Amino acid sequence: MSQTEIDEQWMRQALALARRAEEAGEVPVGALVVRGDTPLGEGWNRPIAGHDPTAHAEILAMRAAGQRLANYRLTGTTLYVTLEPCPMCAGAMIHGRVARVVYGARDPLAGAAGSVFDILGAPSLNHRPEVVGGVLAEQCAALLKDFFRLRRS
Questions:
Q1: How confident is the model over 33-46, as a mean pLDDT?
Q2: What share of the chain is helix, strand, coil (3-state, %, to 5)?
């Protein structure tokens, strides 16, 4: 299986997690942390339910992976997320030493992997993960667009 096929397989799982957020009335973003072929942690947006502005899908997935590994360093992992990470999540990925970040839809409002900011590629920081954007972008973007269209109607 090619790396592209592997990335799409994991992104489909992230999309399933995003749907869990949507079912709960949260912005539909899902994330998972993987090492090799082993999922280590998953998350979906829960800031409303948790009364927690940091409860983004990526943060929850990294927390779960850290607990599973008994380590705050997530070296050798790939984080899959349906929406380009925000500055908070990008910073956590750098501190956690995530090796790869693979995202679906670009975020033109707060994307920190090149759309608005390029925190993940900032040369002044001590760690720069490999970034792959646009994996299943149309499906990821459609989920978000449909969610917000329904909320506005």
A1: 98
A2: 45, 20, 35
Predicted pLDDT of residue 151: 84
Beta strands in 45-134 (DSSP E): 78-83, 100-105, 130-132
Q: For residue 36, count other CB atoms closer than 10 A to its CB.
A: 9
Catalytic residue, from 22, 42, 58, 84: name it.
58
pLDDT band at 152 (very low <50, low <70, confident <90, very high): confident
Q: Is the dihedral of CA 75, 81, 87, 88 positive or negative?
A: negative
Residue 153 pLDDT class (50, 70, 90 cuts): confident
Is 8 in the active site? no
CB 65 within 8 A of CB 57: no
Q: What is the mean pLDDT of residues 13-33?
A: 97
Burial 113-151 (b: 16+ CB within 10 A, else e): bebbbebbeeeeeeeebebbbebbbebbbebbeebeeee
- Do residues 126 and 91 touch, judged by C-beta distance below 8 A? no
